[in-house]
């Protein structure tokens, strides 16, 4: 069957998380850059894909059907489903729940606070800095996840590492790196992965700050 996958997005954490997951899963896709500053997310063409006017959106087109998937984390599960177990172990296994636990730690306890902090700051409402401090604190706590294993949820790279990486990458200049040596080592290892590099560059034409 002929399958064509497109990822519509911008150079933001949510889109990068989706792009890295597709790259790590070996899914072949084409990139559609959405100019958020120029308001392209509010054009009729884009609103037909996601009425919430947000990126990322994945479209999978085959001869028979068209799947439209907004929500970065749903796209991560799409990628995981096509990774032959490389990004998420078999559903129901102990390893599967270990990955989910860490994945949702980064989504709800770290990324969620970052998104709310950004919302407050972009509207000049007080409180954003407190939330950003909390993000750094929660990210710093991840040092203990790496005490006994190489990756965030065990000895295999998974969607938990992708979620952790994109938020820590966004806050990389504020991390107290000497205080979190294992996290720093993990960060460098993940940053060096070719698929992570391709995902980080998916939406930009110039080099990405490391
Ligand atoms: N829950 C969504 C959130 C997506 C989101 O917040 N996207 C932002 C960019 S990171 C966006 O498209 N904003 C549109 C705008 O600023 O108008 C997801 O994770 O996919």
Summarize the structure in words:
The chain is globular, with a radius of gyration of 17 Å. The longest helix has 29 residues, at 94-122. It has a four-stranded mixed beta sheet, with helices on one face. 49% of the residues lie in helices and 10% in strands. The mean pLDDT is 96. The protein is an alpha+beta fold. It has helices at 13-25, 44-49, 72-81, 94-122, 128-141, 159-170, 181-191, 194-200, and strands spanning 3-9, 30-33, 57-62, 66-70. The protein has two domains: 3-86, Glutaredoxin (3-Layer(aba) Sandwich); 94-196, Up-down Bundle (Glutathione S-transferase Yfyf (Class Pi), Chain A, domain 2), CATH 1.20.1050. Glutathione is lined by residues 12, 14, 36, 41, 53-56, 71-72.
CATH topology of the largest domain, which one?
Glutathione S-transferase Yfyf (Class Pi), Chain A, domain 2
Bound molecules: glutathione
How many helical stretches?
8
Number of domains: 2
Run of helices and strands: EHEHEEHHHHHH
Largest sheet, if any? 4 strands, mixed
CATH class wording of the largest domain = Mainly Alpha
Query: What's the gyration radius in Å?
Result: 17 Å
Strand content: 5-15%
Mean pLDDT: 96
- Measured as a percent range, the helix fraction is 40-55%
Q: How would you classify the helix and strand content by structural class?
A: alpha+beta
Q: What is the spatial order of strands in the main beta sheet?
A: 2-1-3-4
- What is the CATH architecture annotation of the largest domain? Up-down Bundle
Shape: globular
Q: Report the span from N to C terminus.
A: 39 Å
Low-confidence spans = none
Question: How many extended strands?
Answer: 4
């Amino acid at each position: 069957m002929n399958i064509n996958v497109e990822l519509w997005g911008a150079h933001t954490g949510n889109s990068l998380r989706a792009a890295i997951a597709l790259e790590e899963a070996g899914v072949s896709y084409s990139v559609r850059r959405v100019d958020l500053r120029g308001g392209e997310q509010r054009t009729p063409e884009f609103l037909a894909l996601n009425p919430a006017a947000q990126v990322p959106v994945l479209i999978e087109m085959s001869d028979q059907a068209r799947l439209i998937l907004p929500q970065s984390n749903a796209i991560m599960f799409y990628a995981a489903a096509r990774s032959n177990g490389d990004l998420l172990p078999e559903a129901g296994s102990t390893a599967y729940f270990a990955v989910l636990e860490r994945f949702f730690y980064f989504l709800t306890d770290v990324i969620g606070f970052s998104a709310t902090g950004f919302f407050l700051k972009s509207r000049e409402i007080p409180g954003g800095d407190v939330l950003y401090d909390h993000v750094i604190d929660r990210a710093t706590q991840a040092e203990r996840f790496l005490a006994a294993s190489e990756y965030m949820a065990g000895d295999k790279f998974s969607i938990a590492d992708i979620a952790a990486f994109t938020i820590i990458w966004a806050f990389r200049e504020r991390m107290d790196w000497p205080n979190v040596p294992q996290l720093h080592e993990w960060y460098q290892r993940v940053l060096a992965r070719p698929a992570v590099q391709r995902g980080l560059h998916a939406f930009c034409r110039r080099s990405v700050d490391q």
